[in-house]
Amino acid sequence: MSELCRDPITGRWNIIDTDEPTGPGGFQVEPEPLGGGTCPFCPGHEHLTPPEIYAVRPGGGPANGAGWQLRVVPNKFPALRIEGDLSRRGLGLFDLSNGVGAHEVIIESPDHRKHMADLAHEDLSRVLSGFTVRSLDLRGDRRFKYTLIFKNVGLQAGASLEHPHSQLIALPIVPKRVREELMGAGHYFDFRGRCVFCDMLHQELGDEERVIVENKRFLAFCPFVSSFPFEVWILPKAHHSDFAASSKEDLNDLARILKEVLLRVRLTLADPPYNFIIHSGPSEPREREEYHWHLEFMPRLTRVAGFEWGTGFYINPTPPELAAKALREVTISGADG
To answer: Which H or E run contains 149?
Structure first.
C-alpha cells in the first residue's frame, strides 16, 4: 500500500509509492537536442545581450568586452521590468499592480559546454558568490521584498538556451510558496521553540538512510516528504535564514556539496533535466529565527498532471530512502576538481 506523508513545514500531503517503487533505471530520460545558431552568452557575442550589470574579469578590461569569467545581464525578455512604480490598485475584488521587478541572467562560464557539475570548485564558488552579490545589491531597492534564485537545465525543465546559466528575479511581493514555508516554520517555532529545519537536520543525521553526502557546513539528503523522485535538499548545518549573508567559507563548502550532488545525479539518472531553487528568507527582517535557508533540487523525471493540479498532492514513485541509497552508492570522481 502507498503511503500518505505530510510535510511538517507547509502541511502539504504527498503520496509515496512503497509497493512497487521505481528505481533509477525505471525513468526514461529523453536526449536533449543540441542547440544551433549563434549563442548570445558565448565570448565575442557580448553585444547580443543587454549591457552587463556585473562581471568578473581578472585581467581587467572594458565592460561588455572579452576576458570575463562570470557575467550578469538583464534578461532580454524579462518577466518583470525594473523601471516604473508599483501603483498598487484594486479592480473590484481583484488586486493589481504594475509588473515591476528585476530579472537577471547569471552566465556561469564562458565555456558553452561546461555545466555546473563540470566547473572547477573555484569557478562554482564564483557563481554562488555572484548570487549573493546581486541579491545584496537589489536589496537597496525598497520596492523589492524577495529575491528568487533558480536554475533550469534542459528543455523539459524550462531552459530556452543551452549555455549554462542561472536566473534571479527580484519581486515586489513575497511568493505564496515562501509565505507557506514561513507560516509553517513560524507555527512550529511558536509551539516547540525550535526551528523545524534544524530539527529536520538532526533527524536526518540520526536516521542516516536519506542522507546522500555531508561536509563541515552542509547536509544533502532526500527529504522524507519528497514531492518528486530523487528530489534533494541541501541545508546549512548552522541556522541562517538569509542565503545572501553566506560567508566565503559557507559558499566554498556549498560549492563542494552542490557539485557532488550534481555529479551523483548525472551518473545515477543519465544526466536528466532539472531545476533547483534557493529558498531564502525575505529581505526584511534580514534574520528570522524560525526560518532556515536551503536549496531544493528536482530532477525532471515525471510530469505534473490532473491529480496534482486538482489536489495539490504530488505522487512520487520513488521512496526517498531508495533514491538516497542509489545516489549515495554511485561511484564518482572529480567532485573536488
So the answer is: strand 146-153
d(CA 23, CA 224): 17
C-alpha closest to that of 121 among 260, 275, 326, 300 = 260
Q: What percent of the chain has pLDDT over 70?
A: 96
pTM of the full structure: 0.93
Element (H, E) at 204: helix 196-207
Residue 271 CA, distance from chain mean position: 17
Span 3-329 CATH architecture: 2-Layer Sandwich (3.30)
Spatial strand order of the sheet with 70-74 comes to 54-56, 70-74, 102-107, 165-171, 146-153, 274-279, 294-299, 232-236, 218-221, 211-214
- Size (the chain), residues: 337
C-alpha cell at 51: 549591457
> Mind telling me the catalytic residues?
165
Q: Could you tell me which residues come within 8 angstroms of residue 110 by beta carbon, excluding any fewer than 6 positions away?
A: 42, 43, 68, 69
In angstroms, the CA 326 to CA 74 distance is 39
Give SS3 for 6.
strand
Q: Name the band, by pLDDT with cuts 50, 70 and 90, for residue 286.
A: low
Domain boundaries along the sequence of the chain: 3-329
Whether 12 has a pLDDT exceeding 60, the answer reads yes
Of 30, 35, 259, 300, give the one whose Cα is nearest residue 153.
Answer: 300
Cα–Cα distance list, 238 to 61, 124, 211, 282 (Å): 39, 21, 17, 18
Question: What is the helix (H) or strand (E) element at residue 258, kind and residue range?
Answer: helix 248-269
